[in-house]
From TrEMBL:
Positions with a binding annotation for Mg(2+) 2: D105, D107, D120, E123
Function: Has nucleoside phosphatase activity towards nucleoside triphosphates and nucleoside diphosphates.
Any GO MF annotation of the entry: ribonucleoside triphosphate phosphatase activity
Recorded superkingdom: Bacteria
Catalytic activity line of the entry: a ribonucleoside 5'-triphosphate + H2O = a ribonucleoside 5'-diphosphate + phosphate + H(+); a ribonucleoside 5'-diphosphate + H2O = a ribonucleoside 5'-phosphate + phosphate + H(+)
Residues in coiled coil: none
Keywords: Hydrolase, Magnesium, Metal-binding
EC number: 3.6.1.15, 3.6.1.6
Name under which the protein is recorded: Nucleoside triphosphate/diphosphate phosphatase
Family to which this protein belongs: Belongs to the Ntdp family.
Length: 176
């Protein structure tokens, strides 16, 4: 897979299982791209929802996408620490200058002290029934959620100490 070049700008596009566009982050800077992952960053970027509403992100964020794992991780740099928002999702694909994935509603929010909560299980259940997720998909998503929780507890990957700070420093070299 040909990927984006570090320093280039991409969109991030989130879809639902039925193929409907869910959300678009207009502009993120690529910090690293391999065949297996993309690490990007954005700050005060325009986000467009499927219903046309727009908003601007409030803080810098480091985004971690993997081509084999069914989740992605956004580390948000806030004044009181780093918060993580983890989407249970399909592995990403890169096409048309965009990172694309299917959002499966299940989310994990991780606080600066590394405690976490799971979110949107009710929304997942509604969409699972409405869109007829196959049982094998449900198992894949649940297994990847457990794998992600293991990463959080073990402080692996994007949860490792200094991961977000180091990539944010790299992001600043492209911005200023």
């Amino acid at each position: 897979m040909a990927g984006p070049e570090p320093g280039s700008t991409i969109q991030i596009q989130s879809y639902k299982h039925n193929g409907q566009l869910h959300r678009v982050w207009e502009s993120s800077t690529v910090l690293k791209a391999t065949s297996n992952n993309v690490i990007g960053a954005n700050d005060k970027t325009l986000v467009t929802e499927s219903d046309g509403r727009t908003w601007i992100t409030r803080e810098p964020a480091i985004c971690y996408f993997h081509s084999k794992y069914w989740f992605n991780v956004i580390g948000m740099l806030r004044t009181d620490g780093i918060y993580y928002y983890c989407n249970i999702s399909s592995p990403f694909v890169y096409e048309e200058d965009s990172v694309k994935y299917i959002d499966y509603d299940l989310d994990i929010k991780v606080f600066p002290d590394m405690t976490y909560i799971t979110l949107d299980e009710d929304e997942y259940e509604i969409h699972r029934q409405q869109m007829n997720y196959p049982k094998v998909l449900d198992r894949i998503l649940r297994n990847n959620m457990e794998f992600l929780i293991h990463w959080i507890r073990q402080r692996k990957g994007p949860f490792s100490p200094d991961f977000v700070d180091q990539w944010y420093e790299r992001f600043l070299t492209y911005r200023y």
